[in-house]
Amino acid sequence: MKSRPELPIFAPAGGGVREVTPAQAEEMIAAGAALVDTREPHEWQTGHIAGATLVPPAHVMEQIEEVVPERHRPVVIYCAAGARSLRAARQMASMGYQSVVSVSGGIVRWKIEGRPWQLPDRTTATATPDPRYSRQLVMPEIGPAGQARLAQAKVLFIGAGGLGSPGLLYLAASGVGTLGIVDFDVVDLSNLQRQVVHTSDRVGRKKTDSAAETIRALNPDVKVVAHDEMLGEDNVERLIRGYDVILDGTDTLETRYTLNDAAVRARIPVVHASVFRFEGQLTVFAPFVGPCYRCLYPTLPPPELAPGCAVAGVLGVVPGTMGLLQATEALKLILGIGEPLIGRLLIYDALDGTFQELRLQRDPTCPACGDGAGGGEPRLRADQPVAAELAG
Amino acid sequence: MTTVRIPPVLRAQVGDVKQVEVSGANVGEVIGQLVGQHPQLREHLLSEDGVLHRFVNIYLNGQDVRYLSELETPVGERDTLILLPAMAGGA
User: Fold this and answer.
1) Which domain, by its residues, includes A46?
2) In sequence order, which ranges of chain B are alpha helices (DSSP H)?
3) In chain B, fewer beta carbons within 10 Å around the N or the C end?
């Protein structure tokens, strides 16, 4: 192989950028220079130089300060053959990095010359920042540890409808590892005004299938568990078992009571939302920490006082807003950050453009979670367990 | 006058307004005045014996009156009562 020039061949305006041979790079690395690999993640998987940090080309400007905070520190950067790393080095020089060198011939030449390299093991793979989540990884409240918690989390959404659509999309995008979806219904044309996880060409298909397809296209990291059944007394315990957080996006009060009682028994927090025309309500029921749904509403109202969306109507964006707020609360619970809406109920009035906050209390006489409830013994049924249908 | 916020599901019973101004020295009097002015509301809030239904919550300035002095809770001129029945919709 014809050898390439070993001395600087490029010195752009702004200075500080030059090309070096793999041998020179190896000396600089040994002397303490930072080492950056600017290729795509799939290229990284084929092997990299020990000690390198992956910063894909499209993310150099935004991620490099995280990887190399000190602008005076010498930096060795490489790619496959040397072109992308030279561009990245110029970008870094323009950001004020004083001594950046690009490895001429890249890792290809490095390997040909017989210099040591390694395949990513599990540890380095985990340590490699995933550009998909870079906006979350950069925040100290989340970072790699928080992102790992999201990846391990199992979240169940009851209903892939108006609330579930935006909630599922954003939970998936955020990197929640497992998303369970409970819905027995099929996509109807009248759903599409608000149920944005579904599409026009999927009318007639199962909602769980449709939602799973959208989620996989958005983020293949997410494992989707589709429960194509109606939540009821007979299956609720099985459906919610093993999940860390449940989001209630159902459309009937009977289902909400059934879910509440089972979640209290299983001690799984429920992020609750409901909508009516231009308004929404939101709160978090954390069993034995704050009130539950029965503390708030001990008995069912007559059906005419609590119609579902199909009867009452709803402005499409209202469940969108409320479903996103549900997803937000779920992420807070998983990450353990912020003040979850436990013991507080938000009322959103879309027409007024206002949020109001009400204080909720645990009811010591609550049959589900009160003092006499036995801390989770299965002892309850919904007040009037009628056939609950998830409308809409 | 105390402001009573009417939930959307009950607005048809009060002429499709969001809030109603009612006088009364405590929560019970305010509710009494309210159903006096809007008799169609009565069955939705109170039982035949005049007891507040358990599926309707009343908040005085954001606090559940059940944990204050219930219907005896005093109300002032600038206070706001919120009526909050359960809301089912989610799909």
Assistant:
1) 17-129
2) 27-37, 42-45
3) N
> Is residue A263 assigned to a domain?
yes
Residue B59 burial (10 A CB sphere; 0-12, 13-18, 19+): buried
Place of tokens 């309707």: B56
In terms of domains, do A69 and A119 share one?
Answer: yes
Say which of B18, B55, B59 has its CB closest to residue A300.
Answer: B55
- What distances in angstroms separate CA A46 from CA A54, A121, A142, one per listed residue? 13, 11, 29
Q: Residues A165, A233: one domain?
A: yes
Please state, in angstroms and rounded to a whole number, the distance separating the CA atoms of residues B27 and B33: 10
Would you say residue A373 lies in a domain?
no
Q: List pLDDT tens digits, range A346-359.
A: 999 999 999 999 99
Tokens of A106: 């890249």
Number of other residues whose CB lies within 10 A of the CB of residue A304: 9
Tell me, what DSSP letter sits at residue A86? H
Contacts of A303 (CB under 8 A, 6+ apart): none
A295 is an active site residue = no
The reply to whether residue A275 touches residue B62, judged by beta carbons under 8 angstroms, is no
To the nearest whole Å, the CA of A168 is away from the closest chain B CA by 13
Residues 6+ apart with CB under 8 A from A234: none
Nearest CB to A252 within list B8, B64, B88: B88
Shortest Cα distance from A96 to chain B (angstroms)? Answer: 52
Same domain (yes/no): A91, A151: no
CB-based burial, A263-287: b 16+ in 10 Å, e otherwise: bbbbebbbbbbbbbbbbbbbbbbbb
- Residue in A closest to B62 by C-alpha: A358
**ipTM confidence score:** 0.93
Check B90 against A253: CB less than 8 A apart.
no
pLDDT digits (tens, 9 = 90+) for A31-50: 999 999 999 877 887 889 99
User: Which tens digits make up the pLDDT trace of A250-263?
Assistant: 988 899 999 999 99
DSSP for A284-326, please give it. Answer: EE-TTTS--HHHH-SSPPPGGGS--HHHH-B-THHHHHHHHHH
- In terms of Cβ atoms closer than 10 Å to its own Cβ (0-12, 13-18, 19+), residue A3 is exposed
Residues 6+ away with beta carbon under 8 Å from B6: B13, B14, B17, B18, B19, B20, B83
CATH no., domain B2-85:
3.10.20.30
The predicted pLDDT at position A238 comes to 98
Query: Which tokens is A303 given?
Result: 């059906």
Q: Which residue in this structure is represented by tokens 């998987």?
A: A45
**Domain match, A100 and A149 both:** no
Does residue A304 register a pLDDT over 80?
Answer: no
| Residue A273 token pair | 């939302």
Q: Are residues A209 and A117 in the same domain?
A: no
> A314 and A288, same structural domain?
yes
